[in-house]
Amino acid sequence: MPQKKEDKKKEIIVTGFGGQGIVLAGRILGMAAALGDRKESTLVQSYGPESRGGACCAQVIISDKVIQYPYINNPDILICMSQTAYEKYKDQLKSDGTLLTDRDLVKADEDRDYFSIPATRMAEELGRKMMANIIMIGFATAITLANSKKAAEEAVMSSVPKGTEEMNIKAFAKGYDYGLSKLKGREKKAFGKTGAIS
Q1: Considering the entire predicted model, what is its pTM?
Q2: What's the pLDDT at 88?
Q3: Number of CB atoms found within 10 A of residue 7's CB
Q4: At what angle do helices 22-31 and 132-144 cross, to 10 degrees?
Q5: Based on the number of CB atoms within 10 Å of its own CB, is 63 exposed (0-12), middle (13-18) or buried (19 or more)?
Q6: How many angstroms separate the CA atoms of 37 and 150, rounded?
Q7: DSSP helix/strand/coil, 63
Q8: CA–CA separation, 26 vs 32, rounded Å?
Q9: Cα 21 to Cα 14, 18, 150, 195, distances in angstroms
Q10: Share of the chain above pLDDT 90, in %
Q11: In the chain, where are the structural domains located?
Q12: SS3 of 48, please?
């Protein structure tokens, strides 16, 4: 009997405050899945009462099968770029879910496992604070494998303003490389704890 292919569905919430490019980040993740990786994807966005500076959220579902319902209650992946957003959504994350934060903007609970990156600071170092969301997408791509790197890069290229593509790809690469180094660091730690793993 043929094996039933398991649906590798990923539910992602990207959240922060208006003006950080949260919805654009969600759109890029969904676009990478649909166009680059040929999967199904949906995007639902919501803003707080005052969009710039107010709470902002993008819900993205990526799936191998048709998505019947686009809203997310318990995400597999939670990407937080502000403390308020973290406080609002942290309890919705699945117990085995992945939490990603902007290190300088979010202080996560200490009893929780998470990955953090100083995305806003790195964007400032690149000369464009507005690219923190692209750095975060690179970071999320490396850590979560929700999208392939190639698909994410192509989605970034086609979503950012003309003339800024090169700079944004550089930002994506910075986030992606940071994510890989974080994973490597964890592997080393795990290897150190358990001794030699054959």
Answers
A1: 0.90
A2: 93
A3: 11
A4: 40
A5: middle
A6: 9
A7: strand
A8: 10
A9: 10, 7, 21, 43
A10: 81
A11: 10-194
A12: coil
Residue 56 backbone dihedrals phi, psi, to 5 degrees: -145, 140
Q: What would the two tokens of residue 22 be? A: 């949260």
Q: Which residues, other chains included, contact 187 with Cβ-Cβ below 8 Å and sequence gap of 6+?
A: none
Q: Tell me: domain 10-194, CATH 3.40.920.10, correct?
A: yes
Tens digits of residue pLDDT in 94-111 = 999 999 999 999 999 989
Least confident interval from 13-27, 45-59, 92-106: 45-59
Question: Rg for the chain (alpha carbons), in Å?
Answer: 17
What pLDDT sits at residue 7?
Answer: 64
Cβ(34)–Cβ(90) below 8 Å: no
Q: What CA–CA distance (Å, rounded) separates 181 from 95?
A: 24
| CA atoms within a 13 Å half-sphere pointing along the CA-CB vector of 129 | 3
